[in-house]
Amino acid sequence: MSMFRTIYAFEVRYWLKQPMVYVLLAINALLVFGAAASDNVTIGQSFDNLLKNAPYVVESLYAYMSAVTYLMATAFVQAGALRDFNHRTQEIIFTTPLQKTPYLLGRFFAACTVSLVPYLGVTLGILAAGFAPWVDPVRLGPIVWGAHLQGWLAFAIPNTLIVGGIVFAIAAVTRRTAATFVGAIAIIVAYSMAGTLLGDLDNERVAVLVDAFGIGTFTNLTRYWTVSDRNTRFLPLSGTLLLNRALWIAVAMTFTAVGVRVFRFTVEEAGRWGRRRKANPPESDLEPVIHLRGPIPAPRLSFTTPTHLRQMLSQARVDFWGVLKSVPFGVIMLIGVVNAGFSLYQANTFYGLTAWPVTYRMVDLIRGTMYLFTVIVLVLYTGELVWKERTARLDEIHDALPHPIWVTAVGKLLAMIGLIAAVQVACMGMGLVAQAAHGYTHVEVGVWVKEMLVLDLLGFAFLAVLSFLVHALVNNKFLGYFVFVTAVIVNTFIWIPLKMQAVMVRYGEAPSYTYSDMNGYGPYVAGLAWFNTYWLAFAGMLVIATVLVWLRGLDTPLAVRRRNAGLRFRGGTRWAFAAFFTVWLSLGGWVFYNTQVLNAYTPTRTAEDRQVAYETTYKATYEGMLQPRAVDVRYEIDVYPEDRDMRSRGTMVMVNKGAEAIDTLFVNLQEEVDMEVDFPNATLAREDEELAVRFYHLSPALAPGDTITVRFTADYISEGFENQVRATQLVQNGTFFNNGFLTPTLGYQSGREMGDRNDRRKHGLPERDRMPPLRRNCTGACMNTYITNMADWVTMETVMSTSEDQIAVAPGSLVREWTENGRRYFHYVLDHRSLAFGSFISAGYEVKREKWGDVDVEVYYDAKHPYNVEKMANSIRKSLAYNQENFGPYRHKQARIIEFPRYASFAQAFPGTMPYSESIGFIARIEDEDDIDMVFYVTAHEMAHQWWAHQVIGAEMEGATILSETLAQYSALMTMEREYGSQQIFKFLKYEMDNYLRSRGTEALKEKPLMRVDASQGYIHYRKGSVALYYLKEMIGEDRVNAALRDLVDTFAYAEPPYPTSHELVDRLRAQTPDSLQYLITDLFEEITLFDNRVTGDPTVEALADGKFRVTFEVQTGKIRADSLGVETVIPMDDYVDVGVLAQPEEGKTRGRVLASDRRRFNEGQHTVELVVDEEPWQVGVDPSFFLVDRIPDDNLKRVRGGG
Amino acid sequence: MNLSVQNLSKTYPNGVQALKDVSLEIPPGMFGLLGPNGAGKSTLMRILATLQDADAGTATLGDVDVLTQKDEVRKLLGYLPQEFGVYPKTSAVAMLDHLAVLKGVGAGGARKELTEALLQRVNLWNDRKKDLSGYSGGMKQRFGIAQALIGDPRLIIVDEPTAGLDPGERNRFYNLLAEIGEERIVILSTHIVEDVRELCTRMAIIHRGEVRYAGSPDDALESLKGRIWERSVAKAELPDYEARHQIISTKLVAGRPVIHVLSDDLPGDGFAPAQTTLEDVFFTRIAGEG
Fold it and tell me: Can you point out the beta strands (E) in A656-734?
């Protein structure tokens, strides 16, 4: 023991003298400080809505930093274990009378102890963030020391021991640093795989234990925490978390014990993964040295350029194979390939949905899973290659050979790029195999090559060039790694906090792009080409700089190297540099002209200032000022897809619907386009160019009921290329914009205000409600929908032209189509007055057309994506059927789904038209019967909007979206249930419930009851809305719900303002609800209500004489009210709750048949339930179908043990 | 073609003066550079091999300025450093081929012929496909000499080539060196006196960065002829003798110290004339005498 203590103390003292410890401490402190003090830096997840030092945030930071400190612990522990080998002192140490166990354990625990020092950075960083002057005091709470303590006990200490133990065992077995790091990387991969498993709901229970760092366990256990929970609570080390930690510490200690056990106190070299070197046969003194006398051939030496090129290639070849044959490279790449293969095999799932493995998705998967390892290899082996000759001690021979030095530097660079290219090709092969295996036969070699071997390879090449330069310059391998990684991190992360948007200052970066099956690289081609060429020229300069500073010979002093660099900078080198410099400078000028002058963009800061100025200048005076309202809109739009140009002319007939005359028009011009407006009898009174606002004076004033027709033009002419492509609405194939893009707006637009609460506070703007508070019997406040404040129901007519090979689609029926001057013209007229909300689309489409009744059902799709067209059409038909049956006639003569490129990934309902992104429904793949048919669902939801939004729409007020989104969810659920049965709905609702419970914890402001939902609270109006409406239907019946909704349509469809509020819906539902269930309306719509129902204890089963089974189990029930921050109060309960017994699920299913179910009225507390079933019971449950919003749904079911 | 070194000096950044005003004239043939560890031999050789720069002085090889026309020197140079390694997992033949390419041996056929001839010459033919890192010290050293012979170099520099070799390997190595050293300048640095005696026609002794002797080994021996005396003494007597005589070396013979002293006359005290060896020259010179 005393020996242990001596060694431990010696080791700790040794380590505390190492500067590395403090460097790492500083890095962690800075990282955490950044994350805790700024909203721009995030570790793991963003905590925008929480206190900066909320205990949950504190604990999370400890948890997430486990991943960061991971490699630090690896470094310390492996160094501790292997120091004697690496310093070749093993022969000295192992022959002293040290005992193995205390020696090893002393080192191990000392290394673990020291690994905790960098962790102090987490504590320091969080505490320091509290003093950062720019942190808003409102966002700081009291320091919760308990959270720090938990951070240490639950994460810092256990994770260090876990990493340490495993790394120690690997080090003991392999005795090699490289192998140990590879092992460490393998753990990270295993870890990320566990994370993937955790994403799948069914595996959660396993996954929370499998997570070696407990991070997933932590997020899982806190996933339903509300804002209030997160600001006040921390997760104590108990229950599942404790179990996880204990399990993993046990695993780690086992590893440590094994490590101690297998560690041999001998100098014998461990075989390189078991393979021993073959001993050389002893040489005999008598063996002749010279076999053949005679001259050694003396070929003429050549020192010409072809020779130099040959030398360069020889260097590249030798280095390429050298790396390829090295074990760490193979292992890291193998891990990466396994990791990527795993995800390619799985493809990703959303609502249990699979998508077709289109090429861009596969490339994205490879990027997400493989590139980390590719970058690791790049970082490691650029350093290795620069140091290769010196490490092998071949440098003296190598440097004294008569080759020019660029041969070495460029040869090595080529080797590195070649290696990455080889890896990319391997990944491509894997991706193609995976595509074939998934049955996707559309082989797009061109896309693969452009993505992986051009664009991404260029990115890697730029990194490699920089890394070589850094290593050549720094001339210290480890410092080189550090400098390079720092440079890359800085280049990645510094620009956003600096608000530097110009891409041309970010080394190696090009404008971000999105590949689309429909539109290829479309609008991004020019930018990608020019930026990459620009960086290639710059990289050329860096390569020359690398050659200049490349060390040759043994003199390392700076002065010598500077002189040598000067000596090398002459002749061809100087010319080459001048050439690259000239090209780079010219391209720089060209890029600058295109991205900063020709296509000048508004810097973020300016955009923010404008938002502030708009509000402070105009809100007080003009908000709510009476303006004329549009009643008829006509467009003539000419789209030139090949040039990405658009010219349009419009007229808008507007009526003064108010009681007073209007003499001032407040006009907002659309800033994205060149816009001109022309009002008759109007003079421009004031123009605010900065904010694109104009005031017109009307003379004579527009009397109540009078009409004015505004003419306007909106043009968008693309020129050159941009810093970041903005107008992705206008593209070569798949133009899609809505009327907002080309129509001026009248009146003060609150949508132009700054929205983010923290940004508002930073700019000294007052807090604002996201929507006006809900009021009953409103008139004046209900005059606008939440969509627009400048129109009610309008008629619309469009003539749209496009190129000859495309189809243009605008709202309404196609009345005429013709070709003129090589362009196609389409004339559309809206069949029924609608919201002033129209989409304009142009692309080369395949069209599926059919009639359903007198409605044209049409799906416009790209030829590459025929997969779900029939499903979409089917969903349209079924939706038309259900909704017409229950909610009145469909008012348009067509129902269209139109595919658009994946620059946006949503589906949206316009009158009679539903643009639908290529990336969601069109490549979704629903083959398994059990899968939720997302295509059917999304289409049904959008179709339902033709009633809920396009006939009945809420006033701009809290709860408005319940009338559109929640009711659309309800209609879609009903349509889906009719098509697929209730099992699918249960599955769907479970996802909805989970999404709601998770999302409420990350609510940025406050959670509101369903009937007061804000338009931005999707998790309430979609997710909770589904659950609530479906449960209400379950309790009072579909007929009663539909009767209420039908009445809503009859009253409000296409009605002039005032627009309905959520009261109109809730009142009608209440009227349909029997007295005994009135509480439901309150619980579901007016309050935030949750339940805490669970099965407690073990169920007992008694086999009865008649072959039946009596199942007895205990349930606990509880009901909770939550306020807007999630502060919960237990309230008395007298509610109907189902209890039931389920059978064993069939093969491949997760849920068994219901054997018995009973709806009982429960008070809060403990109850005994007894049910008799005909078959063997498998599970018992309280609220087994998850109708109720339950804090923890999972504990509603319990397996029957023994008897089952 | 001679290698002429004039007034070469080199000081390292840490203040160690490795070479002080070194001047040497090296004609074709084997030239031995003798000196104790740290004498500056390796620095001198690395300067001549273009791997380090001198602070002052000149060095010319024929009409090539060694210090500034490095590329020209490299074309004429064969260099075997004191310690060298090779790329891991690379066979002798692949390594030699790569080095030949870097040396400027162009066409594939001629290069293949050359590498094959060299490997046969140094008797590595049978092991040519083996991983070089598995070679024994002697084999590795023979590989080293093979690579130094690529391209028929005019100047061959071998730094401490026999360190770590067993006597058999050393013999074979000398045979090879002797053979190639006939019409080239071969500079052999060593701290083993025997090496020089056996191989070199000319030599220099360097100590603390200075040339202490330059000339032929025979002349050196001649200069000490009759001035070296030896005596076997008891260990306890050693301090006594050290006080009274100028001892140039002490070595153990069968466990008893045998001391050599330099003296023009018989020193008495039981000393007897000794056979003058190069080792005596060496010790005398580095002691700053003679």
Answer: 662-668, 674-678, 682-688, 693-702, 707-716
